[in-house]
Design a protein that fits this description.
The chain is α+β, with helices and mostly antiparallel strands. Helix content is 27%, strand content 25%. The chain has a 6-stranded antiparallel beta sheet, with helices on one face. A hairpin with a 4-residue loop joins β5 and β6. The longest helix has 27 residues. The protein is globular.
Length: 158
């Protein structure tokens, strides 16, 4: 009986430590791409997931224009980029049928034009995604709409 109490206390301590470490890591983690941008004014972020993968959707609203001239990730959007972004967006949107935030997903391809900026992380340029077979299996989309001064973030690894 005493051994069971000790084992129970040990398990409880381990669980508390894991939760504390997880909370700490969430507080200190900074997205390496977003950290290259100036401080945003507001952030709206949704996380979703299941046993087979995760999707995240976020919007970072900026008070002022963002200067991308020296940014190591973002590039000015081309017409070809709009087509590629559209393919990723269709796939991402198709995963939202089960996510609690599907009603809050308000990204529209009508926002995309050649004045905007884009960075797509996939198996070709992100080590963590190199284990996936295709570029659409795991990706991060960072799309900055210059007119709305809003960075849209879409992540999927389903």
């Amino acid at each position: 009986m005493k051994i069971l109490k000790i084992a129970g206390c040990f398990v409880l301590i381990v669980v508390i430590l894991i939760l504390a470490i997880d909370f700490y890591l969430l507080k200190i983690y900074k997205d390496p791409v977003i950290s290259t941008l100036p401080e945003y004014e507001d952030k709206i972020f949704f996380e979703g997931g299941s046993g087979s993968g995760f999707t995240d959707y976020g919007k970072y609203i900026y008070k002022n224009d963002v200067d991308f001239s020296k940014n190591p990730y973002f590039k000015r959007v081309t017409e070809d980029d709009i087509k590629i972004l559209s393919e990723y967006e269709k796939i991402f949107a198709s995963f939202l049928t089960k996510e609690y935030y599907k009603e809050d997903y308000d990204f529209s391809m009508s926002l995309a034009d050649t004045q905007d900026y884009l960075y797509i992380a996939n198996r070709e340029n992100k080590e963590a995604y190199s284990v996936y077979k295709g570029n659409f299996d795991a990706f991060d989309i960072y799309f900055y709409d210059t007119q709305g001064r809003t960075l849209y973030f879409m992540h999927s690894n389903i």
